[in-house]
Structures are given as C-alpha cells and as structure tokens.
Amino acid sequence: MDTMRDRFAPVVSRLLDEDPRVAVVLAEIGKDGFAEARSRHPDRVVNVGIREQLLIGAGAGLALTGLRPVLHTFASFLVERPFEQVKLDLGHQDAGAVLVSAAASFDWPAGGFTHMSPGDVTLLDTLDGWTVHVPGHPDEAETLLRHAVAAGDDKVYVRLSAQSNAQGLPVDGARFLTVREGHAGVVVAVGPMLDAALAATEGLDVTVLYATTVRPFDAAALRRATQTAGTDVVLVEPYLAGTSTKEVADALADVPHRVLGLGVGRRELRRYGTVEEHVAAHGLDPASLRERIGAFLGARVHG
Q1: Is the model's pTM score more than 0.90?
Q2: 4-159 belongs to which homologous superfamily?
Q3: Among the four residues 3, 36, 138, 269, which has the most C-beta atoms within 10 Å?
C-alpha cells in the first residue's frame, strides 16, 4: 500500500491543474514530487530552499495576493521551527494557507529528535482559527487534502503519517465516525490510532469514535455517544498525550465525567530504534492500550 505522503504530490499536482488559485511552497523537502507540476506551473510551484521561516512568510504573501498556498515539509520544520511566522504572518495577518506535514510524531526515528514533532497540534492549539486534519489512511489523506484546499481562505493543518490503518473510512472533514457501540465508556481514536484502539478494545463494552478532523472538535458526536455509553472518555491520539482533554472537558462541561488522555509521552526517547519500538515505548500498542483502558474503565467495561 502506498503512504499518505505518496498521495500528497499527485493530489496537489492535480489541484494545481484544476484551480488557478492553488500554489505550492516547498523548503527543499518533497521537491522531486513536484518536478512535472513545476514545469507546467513555474509561477505557482516555489522552492525556497532550507529556509522554513521563509516558507511560511512566502506562503502568507501568496495568500495575501489571493492565492491558496499549500506549504509542505516535516512537521518539526513546518510548525515548531517557524512558529513565530505561523503566528504572525498567517494568524496575525489573517492569511489562509494549507500546512501539510510529514514525519508525524516519530515516523523517522533515525532522523533523531530534530525530526520528531509530537507537540505540533498542541502548539497550534495556542492559536485561533486552525482546522486540523489527522488522516489515518492514504485514501483519507487524499479526501482531507482536497477538503483543505477547497476550504476558502481558512488556515488548515493536514498531518500526514507513515503509520496507517488497514482500511480507509468515508471521512467528511468535519464529523467523528462511530465504528463500534457499547455502554461502558467512549474511546476516541484519532487518525492512525484506530486499528490499535479497535484491537485493544475487542470484546469490551465500549463505543469507539473515529476522529480524523480534531479541530474543530466534534463535541456533538461525543455528547451523543455518552448518552448511551456513559461519560468515561479515553482519548487515543498519535501526538502528545492529553492534547484534546480540554476539548472533552468543554464538550462535557455540564455533566460529571472522567477523561484519560493517551498518546506520546513527554519524555524524550534517546535510543531512536524503530517506529514500532516507539509505539510500544509510549504505550500505544494494542496490548498496552488494552491494559490502560481496562484499568481506567474498570469492571463495567467487560460487559
């Protein structure tokens, strides 16, 4: 199966052909995928080199001229390194753009901590007005990329990962999907965490919601789920643990509830190893998730 990032350049190249507003700005990373598109649209495919602050600034400038810029590099270089430009050039100037990242939290362990970004969504949460898509399959990535580019002049972040669920689902760029129903708690699985969450909760009496658009957070779907499953909520996120616990708290502010945020820990893992080893070290493999979810939900979860 191809990866989400394999879909990125072909999809956006087609969008360049279809929509004269679309522009692409790269910071060296991913430039080979746009070689043909650049020959067709030399004025709308720009490579600024290894200058991530300029990547954001140039994208903001294009947006202010009426274009719809798509900006791409690794997550740590797209959100963390040029965060001041994200805050000011895009946010302060109210300039819309589509930020498309790669490498997710730890998709390239050999690249070291400089190429890891488990805190990217948390960082964007300090800013106003961002839509955040976290696809869990290449088909979903394609759908959400198209949603993002078509979203007027909004500020959108699309978080691509090498990790993937086995099958894509019909996501719509807004709502959570209910993939399993139960009565003893709600598990919200984000993007590529769905397969692990389903394996971890097999045979447990829980509702599983699938989230690929996490900002805005689908509070209505969560509230509907809690009407039959109760107000114990577990978040399984592929980035910093607890990133969306405030969203759950806001959604359920008028009812007693408990929330457990599972995700990537804050402790830096200095033995980089493999992706699978990082997943296990952060307790995001099915066996670890089952133990942690079961301990939180208690006896009721076994039906």
Answers
A1: yes
A2: Thiamin diphosphate (ThDP)-binding fold, Pyr/PP domains (3.40.50.970)
A3: 138
